[in-house]
Design goal:
The protein is an alpha/beta fold and 230 residues long. The chain has ten helices and eight strands. It has one domain: TIM Barrel, CATH 3.20.20.70. α2 crosses α3. It catalyses: an N-acyl-D-glucosamine 6-phosphate = an N-acyl-D-mannosamine 6-phosphate.
């Protein structure tokens, strides 16, 4: 097993992201958020944008899963969608690069296979993570050679809209763990409580990514307010 994958095994990876327009949108704040996550026991960080990643790497020595959310017009693929974003991420020294690995055509017209081969050829030493939305996409990403597969986009595509990782007793993550043969499976996407995190770990995922439930206080506050009926 790759030493980095061993380092994050069975641990919590905290996604420290705040997009433009959100209250905590600031590279400085994301750096401190990552530091807080480290102090709480996180084994890794997932982060968006070159500026956030650079600041986070100043604050913590944890491995970083880097993405660039770049929207091209109305195109639905926006998580590290082209080689341009990969090149920018590689320069930050991120250990893992995650990308949309759904079956949708990318903004530059390429399919996933073409994109993967280009990235792997240019950056053979960087671990690659496939953000998928279905079991079939997970199997295909594994066959291509991705190091990590995660159902990050389950519930966020037209085909899976509204679905949650814990639906039907965690059926989707169980199927992915069973069918993916080589890549490590990480649970990500709507892991909203410690109980869900524990449950997916018991399904034998390699690690767990939690984002908004830890790092988006506006969402956390709303959950309390909604539960109180206010």
């Amino acid at each position: 097993m790759h030493p980095l994958l061993e380092q994050i095994r069975k641990g919590l990876i905290v996604s420290c992201q705040a997009l433009e327009g959100e209250p905590l949108h600031s590279s400085f704040i994301m750096g401190r958020m990552a530091l807080a996550a480290k102090e709480g026991g996180a084994v890794g960080i997932r982060a968006n944008s070159v500026s956030d990643i650079k600041e986070i790497k100043k604050q913590v020595s944890l491995p970083v899963i880097g993405i660039v959310k770049q929207v091209y017009g109305t195109h639905p693929v926006f998580i590290t969608p082209t080689i341009k974003e990969v090149e920018a991420l590689a320069k930050t020294g991120v250990e893992i690069i995650a990308t949309d690995a759904t079956n949708r055509i990318r903004p530059d017209g390429s399919d996933l296979n073409t994109f993967y081969q280009e990235v792997r050829s240019a950056y053979p030493n960087i671990l690659l993570m496939a953000d998928v939305s279905t079991l079939e996409e997970a199997i295909y990403a594994d066959e291509l050679g991705f190091d990590i597969v995660a159902p990050t986009l389950y519930g966020y595509t037209e085909e899976t809209k509204g679905k949650k990782i814990d639906d039907h007793d965690y059926a989707v993550i169980k199927q992915i763990v069973k069918e993916v043969k080589n890549a490590k499976v990480i649970a990500e996407g709507n892991v909203s409580t410690p109980e869900i995190a524990r449950s997916v770990l018991d399904i034998n995922v390699h690690a767990v990514v939690v984002g908004g439930a830890i790092t988006r206080p506006q969402m956390i506050t709303k959950r309390f307010v909604d539960a109180m009926g206010k």
